[in-house]
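Q: Hi! First time doing this. I have a protein sequence and I read that you can turn it into a structure. Is that right? Here it is:
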Amino acid sequence: MESFIAFFSAVGIAWLIWTGAQKLFFTRRQPLEKCIVVVPVRQDAPALEGTISGLVNVSVYGQQIHKILIADCGLTEEALMLARKLAQEHERVTLCSMDRAQKETE
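A: Yes, that's right. Below is the predicted 3D structure, encoded as C-alpha cells:
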C-alpha cells in the first residue's frame, strides 16, 4: 500500500513540475495564430454532434479553437436542423456553405 501511495505522490510531483515549467516557458512564446476548423458534412451527418462537442472542448497551450465552421455539402433537413441547433448553442460554431468556408480560411 505504501508503494502505491509513493508512486502516485511521485506522479503528482512530476505533474506539478511539468505544469510549472509549461507556464514559465510556453507563455513567453509569441501568441499562436487563431485556429479555424472546417467540418464538411453531407447527408445525415451521423457524427456531427460528437465531432462539434469534441472540437468545442479542444485547446492547444490553453488557447481554444477560434472558429468552427460546419460546411453544408448537402445535408438532409434533420441534419440541417441539428447543425443550426449546434451553431446556436456554441458561439464559436457557424453553419455555412463550403464556398463560404473556403473564403473564411483564406
